[in-house]
Design goal:
Blueprint (H helix, E strand, L loop, with lengths): L3 E8 L2 E9 L4 E3 L2 E2 L6 H14 L1 H4 L2 E8 L3 H20 L2 H10 L31
Helix pairs in contact: 1-3, 3-4
C-alpha cells in the first residue's frame, strides 16, 4: 500500500495543495522542479522548511505542490506553509513541529491578514477625496 498525504497552505488569496508520497526526494511546484521555479527570493523562501527539517527526511519522499491565486510572493508563502505542514504530518514528530514554530510561526499557522475592502468617497480603503475649505 502506497502512503499518500495531502496538505494545504494559504496566504492572502494564494492557495497551495501539497501531495507527499514515498520517493527519491523530488520537489515540484506546478510540475516545475524547485531548482528552476520562480526567482531566487521565492526559492529561498520555499526551501526554508526543507533546510530546517534536514536531508534525511527529504531523501525518502516526493513533494508535488499545486498553487494558484495571489502574487508570486503570496504563492511562495502558501507553498512553504503546505510543505512544512506536510513534513510535520509525515514524520509525526513533535520536535520538528517545535523547530518550525520557534523559527517562524507562519510555517504552520497561516497569516490571517487580508486586504481591507474599499470604502466610498475615495480611491482605496483609507484614502479620501481632499477638501480645500475648512
Amino acid at each position: 500500500m502506497i502512503k499518500v498525504l495531502l496538505t494545504s497552505g494559504k496566504r492572502k488569496t494564494a492557495i497551495a495543495r501539497a501531495t507527499v508520497k514515498e520517493g527519491s526526494g523530488r520537489i515540484r511546484i506546478n510540475s516545475v522542479p524547485l531548482e528552476v521555479y520562480g526567482n531566487e527570493i521565492t526559492r529561498y523562501k520555499i526551501i526554508e522548511p526543507i533546510i530546517l527539517a534536514g536531508d534525511k527526511v527529504l531523501s525518502k519522499i516526493d513533494i508535488d505542490v499545486k498553487v494558484r491565486g495571489g502574487g508570486f510572493m503570496s504563492q511562495a508563502d502558501a507553498v512553504r506553509t503546505a510543505i512544512a505542514k506536510a513534513l510535520v504530518e509525515w514524520k509525526k514528530d513533535e520536535a520538528l513541529r517545535k523547530i518550525f514554530l520557534d523559527y517562524d510561526r507562519t510555517l504552520l499557522a497561516g497569516d490571517s491578514r487580508r486586504t481591507e475592502p474599499k470604502k466610498f468617497g475615495g480611491r482605496s480603503a483609507r484614502a479620501k477625496k481632499q477638501k480645500s475649505y475648512r
